[in-house]
Amino acid sequence: MAFELDRHPDVAPPPGPVVIVIMDGVGIGSGGEDDAVALARTPTLDALHAERAHTRLLAHGTAVGLPSDDDMGNSEVGHNALGAGRVFAQGAKLVNGALTSGHLFGGEVWRSILERGRSGGALHLIGLLSDGNVHSHIDQLFALIREAAEKGLTRLFVHPLLDGRDVPERSALTYVDSLEALLGSLSSGDGGDGRTYRIASGGGRMVVTMDRYEADWTVVERGWNAHVHGQGRAFSSARQAIETYRAEDPDLIDQFMSAFVITDDNGPVGTIADGDSVVFFNFRGDRALEISRAFEAGDEFDQFDRGRRPDVLYAGMMQYDGDLLIPQRFLVEPPAIERTMGEYLARNGVAQFACAETQKYGHVTYFWNGNRSGKFDDETETYVEVPSDRVPFEQRPWMKAAEVTDAVVEAVRSGDYPLVRVNYANGDMVGHTGHREAAVTAVQVVDLCLARVLRAVQRAQGVALITADHGNADQMYEKNKKTGAVKRDDQGHPQAKTSHSLNPVTCVLADFSGHDRNLGLRQDPTAGLANVAATVLELLGYAPPADYDPSLLEPGTTDRTQNNS
Questions:
Q1: pLDDT at residue 517 in the model
Q2: pTM score, two decimals?
Q3: CA-based diameter of the chain, in Å?
Q4: What 3-state class would DSSP assign to 166?
Q5: Burial code of 416-447, b = ≥16 C-beta within 10 A, e = fewer?
Q6: H helix intervals, 165-275
Q7: Residue 562: what pLDDT?
């Protein structure tokens, strides 16, 4: 495969680096009381929008490969699009297609699951229970359950992880009740033909099972102990667990709910035993990798004491890491993303620097490179991870932005890297907490750090391209879809929104190169994140591949004296 890049006939590279700044979760909101981005004091962003070429980019729905424009964007698909330069069908769309076509149920892995079930083994389904469509979708879970029943499996247990992050923060009972209704209709006593279909264990996604980037393995350990060993606080039903936890802490939201285990007179109803099958039904990979490793790794695994490790057939909805082959078995093929911008630059000997704190480190590496672990070229690529705090993000909304900025400024000053990319996690991670004032602080921190980065880029005579992967902090309250009014409780308090928004994101070009080229950015209402890669390649002086989404660059009207100020 040829990777040679041709020099651009009209755009010369800057003396300094091209720096891509991703302000994670910082979208363009309504400007109202729900909009933490608009409420924040952002002199740097304000000056950029007043003085520099800028445009808006779509960061959700079909523009990033999701099934419909009602689907919010997320960091995985956003960084895939930013790095790949084209739009690929993403997890939700791929799984829906495999279910509709029946391909999912015709594969070898599903057939092996059925064989184990017919030999007496139970099927365990673990994953995020909601219709957020970011990590999973409840309809896909229901399709697996119904197919298992139709094919004669008699024992099935669901281990739901509560969302409250990609959906309203206290919506768990809506999904649990729907799940219980389906399981009840398929179990004995209601035409169930001797089937036992039950919820077995669960908990909130941020404290049970769904850790990512090895930020906190105790999250996975809690899930393992609950799902596998039946160790955790006991309840007679998931509804009882949720209602009890809420009564004990009225401020508790779903994503932080402690682990629970469903028991009866004989103890836990659905521990995972030898001969069983386990499917992790999330399609997104970042929060599925660690639990997959816990199930698949041998005796070398030392992240926590797994105790008895059952002999099970483990599979993911998808393969979450194609290089490390995690998991080894999966139901749906992941998108084949090749020839990313990072790979092109590596094959052409262009040094690259990528940096983020732990919470978003994989986004500027793994996702950016097309769901690929590791580097394309150890000699030319430098990746820096700044360890994230292990405290609730609303308590420290500044997170590790300053330390990330230190690393980026040093990389720019070094002159070693023609391309630098950085992700600031604050707008997204704090936005997910539902705390508007903390989100305001988070955005202000990013703005302050952005000013430092821009000063370094200016001194180096480089170019900065500032954008985001999706919105979040720009909509901190739930809204009525018809009227646009903020939803309020009985006391008149706004209802917090913890999920991503459907809003576009900004894209700003700050050219400090000293070249008198007067570059601007196209105003295209259909442009999306995938247009960024070709734009960056052109800024580096290369002609982008012909099949990349077109560059946003065009002759602009920006006052050139501002670019040298």
A1: 80
A2: 0.82
A3: 79
A4: coil
A5: ebbbbbbbbbbbbbbbbbbbbebbbbbbbbbb
A6: 172-186, 217-227, 238-248
A7: 34
- CATH 3.40.1450.10 in the chain is located at 92-332
Give backbone dihedrals phi and psi of 168, rounded to 5 degrees, phi first. Answer: -50, 145
Q: Which of 153, 229, 161 is nearest to 199 (CA)?
A: 161
Q: Which residues have C-beta within 8 Å of that of residue 286, sequence separation ≥ 6?
A: 75, 76, 212, 213, 320, 362, 366, 367
pLDDT over 90 percentage in the chain:
87
Question: CA 377, 379, 383: angle at the middle one, nearest 5?
Answer: 75
Residues 6+ apart with CB under 8 A from 193: 154
In sequence order, what are the residues at sequence separation of 6 or more whose Cβ sits closer than 8 angstroms to the Cβ of residue 511?
A: 14, 52, 53, 463, 517, 519, 558, 563
Q: Specify whether the CB–CB gap between 57 and 467 falls below 8 A.
A: yes
- H/E element holding 402? helix 401-414
**At residue 220, what is the residue type?**
V
Tell me the pLDDT tens digit for each residue of 331-364. Answer: 998 777 999 999 999 999 999 999 999 999 999 9
What pLDDT score does 516 carry? 80
Spatial CA neighbour of 250 closest among 179, 167, 169, 175 = 169
* 75 noted as active-site residue: yes
Helices (H), 259-373: 289-296, 341-347, 358-361
Which candidate in 30, 75, 258, 277 is catalytic? 75
Q: What share of the chain is helix, strand, coil (3-state, %, to 5)?
A: 35, 20, 50
Integer Cα distance of 109 and 16 in angstroms: 51
SS (H, E, C) 441-499: HHHHHHHHHHHHHHHHHHHCCCEEEEECCCECCCCCECECCCCCCECECCCCCECECCC
Does CATH number 3.40.1450.10 belong to domain 92-332? yes
pLDDT, tens only, 203-226: 999 999 999 878 999 999 999 999
What does CATH list as the number for 45-89+336-418+462-483+501-563? 3.40.720.10
CA atoms lying within 13 Å on the CB side of residue 282: 26
- The string of pLDDT tens digits covering residues 162-211 is 999 999 999 999 999 999 999 999 997 544 568 999 999 999 999 999 99
- CA–CA separation, 252 vs 160, rounded Å? 18
537 Cα distance to chain centroid: 25
